[in-house]
Amino acid sequence: MFDRPGYGERAVLVQVDFGQGAIEERLAELGLLAASAGAHVEAVMRAKRRAPDPALYVGKGKAAELAETLRAHEADLVIFNHELAPGQQRNLERLLECRVVDRTALILDIFALRAKSHEGKLQVELAQLEHLSTRLIRGWTHLERQKGGIGLRGPGETQLETDRRLLGQRVKALRGRLAKLESQRRVRRRSRQRRDVMSVSIVGYTNAGKSTLFNALTKAGTYAADQLFATLDTTSRRLYLGEAGNIVLSDTVGFIRELPHSLVAAFHATLEETVAADLLLHVVDAGSEDRDAQVEAVNGVLAEIGAGDLPQVMVWNKIDTTRAPAHFDRDACDRIRRVFVSAKTGEGLDLLRLALIEAVGGFHAVTRDSEASRSNSSNYDPLHS
Predict the structure, then answer these.
(1) Tens-digit pLDDT profile for residues 301-324
(2) ∠ CA 196-198-200 to the nearest 5 degrees?
């Protein structure tokens, strides 16, 4: 299932069942992540535990079994579908004599491969450095305290302290540059709001078809592929909706379950476009057996970045894979809240445009009410009330 001929490193995947459920779906997702990073999956090892082992995560017995699996398949990389503590990672690498990568590092690596814009590259580097900072604890021999002697009397700080200081300086510089870009983005957004243009952000689980939908609606031609995290950089385009006028539609980075917090923090400027939106188009892969858990994961990240209360229209995409007809559902207030479409074939896109036109009408009504309220407030004269 995960074979991708021509890929480089030979990897063994590790999935531990702590009773969280959907193990096969989690493993399938890990396989896609590994392939996206350029690994060729040789074997999969499953384990079942009540809690992680403090030293080796999987325990001594499973770690020994993992070593045998590595030798049998001549693999040179182990990928855990979990977040490992620095100590656990070091212990496993010493025992297995190969590189060990956890879920966070794997996702960061894919982001580094996918980042194209200047801002995207800065955000990925910041997240990688912050992840690395937790690993700078007696991780390598060159970090041991410098010994005295001729030619070895250094500036009085250990290599570890030097690495931490340089890393801290780089992190500070990156945060400063990203803050400037965030400020520029805020200015552009303010000018858009002054023109009373409705802002709509496309959100959803990675590989749900967000960029394909964005291209189908706007003819933007942004990169879209059947792979995880094909889009990292936010792209915005005007979309003309006839008599309803224009809206600004933004394509954003896809979410995933257990998205590393360092990534959420680093991509704050990009994700802020989502927080500032007037409406979210939440794209769901209608053909996925794990779609309910994916919707829950997306809503969890939206809540984390402060966008949990924004109005949503659920877009059930890829109906061409389920043979479901294009249609929409209304809520108790007679608003369109779910649309079934195929961004690939174009089926149902007219219904989605109708949902957007209705949303624009509601947006302008709220804007008029708010302006009238401000006007009445400014004209209020307490002497003649």
Answers:
(1) 888 888 889 999 999 999 999 989
(2) 160
